[in-house]
Amino acid sequence: MSIQDNQTSILTKLTALWALSESGLGGFMHALKIPFTGFFLGGFAIVIISLIAHHTQHKSKSILKATLLVILVKALVSPHSPPMAYIAVAFQGLSGMAMFKLIPNTRLAAALFGLIALMESAIQKFLVMTLIFGQSLWEALDLFVKAILKDFSFIANFSFSFWLIALYTGVYSIWGLIVGIWAGGLPKQLYNKSDEVLFQLQNLNYTQHDIMAYQKSKRKGKLIGAFFLLLFIVSVFAMQGFGGKAFYAIIRSLAALLLMFYVLNPAIKWAIQKWANKQQHQHKQTLAQLVDLMPNFKNNLAPALKIAQLQCKGLKVYPAFVVNLIVLSLYRNN
Predict the structure, then answer these.
(1) How many domains does the chain have?
(2) 258 in any annotated domain
(3) 220 in a domain, yes or no?
(4) Any residues with CB less than 8 A from the CB of 134 and at least 6 apart, and which?
């Protein structure tokens, strides 16, 4: 195999691995009760995009192509994914493309990319909540905290919601920076670990876990969560004697929920599927290759985790799992 063919093969495998994380890795993590799923999946995309940048001279073009293909695979394999999931993938790809194009130092670019990508992930959540519930959610939260502090004779002259958002976004941003720094040094680690991981695989006894789809429960879970948030807002305003605000919060939130779940989401999904159907013909051969690779890579999940558990203890299992999964996906003869 020529150097160019080998490079193309690695980029294709990395793209398939990214597509798998967007359409199936979350279900695997929930089935095995692996914690920090949101942290993990967001960080995994940073790792894969950084590796794509490392393995090609045409960083921007390769990352853009991989992003397009992952969105297409997501539309093909997980057609019920919410629109915000596609936006998240697109932002990850575009921000990664921008960082690796503008910053010549790959490790610095990976660190800044990780910070920006996960900062956006955190901010996106608060934007969606604000669009649905409006400013009423944050006002109710501030009033609720002030009432509690008042019972303990504390005077609250600050906005609890502001500091909550700042802290949450800060934690995500710092985590993104840490993952980006780690991803910048990952190629050397993969090279050093590849022989060891493949050797351990030969002597490994493991059982493939049943990887359940998690998509079917998401909408129900989101609607239940939205109901309790709305109940919280109304209860706080009712206790404070703001009957008009409570009524306004109900009407506004119900209207926003109905608009989002039954008008905007279906319309955006329809538009994405229509676009994807056109693009699938253009990338038919590559998409077929990616979809064929994904079941093989899915089979690497259980042994990658088992080897990591033999190698490490505690939180160190998770970075070891990522290294093992990438090694098996790139170098194992499935």
Answers:
(1) 1
(2) no
(3) no
(4) 249, 252, 253, 256
